[in-house]
Write a structure and sequence with these properties.
By secondary structure, the protein is mostly helical. It has one domain (2-322). The chain has eleven helices and four strands. It has helices spanning 2-20, 29-47, 52-81, 83-95, 100-115, 119-127, 139-186, 198-222, 230-240, 249-260, 290-322, and strands at residues 264-265, 268-270, 273-275, 279-280. The protein is globular, with a radius of gyration of 20 Å. GO terms for molecular function: ABC-type vitamin B12 transporter activity; threonine-phosphate decarboxylase activity.
Length: 323
């Protein structure tokens, strides 16, 4: 029974994500965290204009404290009423922290538009899931951006939250997602965000160090089971896994590039400014629209492997505590 209680939140999260994804009609905790970050950023820029680094630390710690305290208090109350009620509620909370179906659905909007040669439609769709400037992208650049996003967010949006939830449930998952959301909003290394987002960006690097590498390994292991290249996935991962300003971003991107047999990354524009980046992978063939589907299959396969391992860890931890 203890093991069932331990596994239930993760199972509920996986089932709900597969069935529902992220309905835009429902309030989403991550969007609420995003609004909190925006409001605190405005306050910090007013109050700490002379020392945005200190203000950025205050911003990050405040967001983390609120993001963790709310689910913790709710779960303490619900678990005190009923273990099953608490586990069910925690499962719903965990569901909001995983974005596999959302990642697939949004990237497939790019796929369907590109399939119809609707370049403007594909550009608009990809602009919703990438941070770079998309106006300068041609069809191949749009497809490549979608593939890169699926590859990178396999860790950020799916497996990393699962890993943290396996150890600390929804509370630790909320901690991770609050930091990751801050990194995506204020973690840029440009003049506007270099100081205020520095602490959040560094913390995100720390939190993603092991998840990104374990996810890349999961991609290598699962690649042959979905018809992709395991040997090249490993070779390119080892060779190109550090070809990024971030210590983590190229990990899954390189494994995916090798598995697909394509070249990803390269120069990109952000906020109108050209950022020079190294290429990842070998250009064995041009990137094609079908690579978006292949990247999604790799995302699901590697996530399934991570989920199975996380489930085992969760059962052992919770089972041991309840014993």
């Amino acid at each position: 029974m203890n093991y069932i209680i331990g596994a239930l939140p993760l199972v509920i999260a996986a089932v709900l994500d597969c069935l529902l994804g992220d309905p835009y009609s429902l309030p989403h905790p991550i969007r609420l965290i995003g609004k909190l970050i925006s409001k605190l950023e405005a306050i910090v820029r007013r109050k700490w204009s002379s020392d945005l680094r200190k203000g950025g630390v205050f911003l990050a710690l405040t967001v983390i404290l609120i993001s963790v305290s709310v689910p913790l208090l709710i779960l303490i109350i619900l678990y005190s009423i009923s273990t099953w009620l608490g586990a069910a509620a925690e499962g719903v909370m965990c569901y909001y922290l995983v974005a596999a179906k959302c990642l697939r659905d949004e990237s497939m909007k790019v796929y369907h538009a590109a399939e119809k040669n609707d370049v403007e439609g594909a550009r608009k769709a990809v602009s919703m899931i990438v941070g770079r400037d998309t106006a300068v992208l041609d069809k191949e650049g749009i497809i490549k951006a979608a593939v890169e996003t699926v590859a990178e967010n396999t860790s950020d949006g799916v497996t990393a939250p699962i890993m943290y939830m396996s150890f600390g449930g929804a509370v630790l998952g909320a901690f991770y997602k609050s930091v990751n959301t801050m990194d995506s909003m204020i973690g840029y290394k440009n003049e506007k965000y270099a100081d205020i987002g520095r602490f959040a960006a560094k913390l995100d690097d720390v939190l993603n160090y092991f998840p990104s590498r374990l996810t890349a390994l999961a991609m290598v292991v699962t690649a042959p089971f979905i018809g992709l290249n395991c040997r090249d996935a490993y070779r390119i991962w080892i060779r190109d896994g550090r070809k990024h300003a971030s210590p983590n971003s190229a990990q899954t991107e390189s494994a995916c590039a090798g598995a697909l047999g394509v070249q990803l990354a390269g120069d990109a524009y952000y906020f109108g400014e050209l950022h020079k980046k190294e290429f990842i992978g070998d250009p064995k063939r041009p990137v094609e629209n079908e690579d978006i589907r292949r990247a999604n299959r790799l995302m699901y396969a590697s996530s399934a492997l991570v989920f199975a391992a996380a489930l085992a860890v969760r059962c052992i931890i919770v089972g041991g505590i309840l014993c």
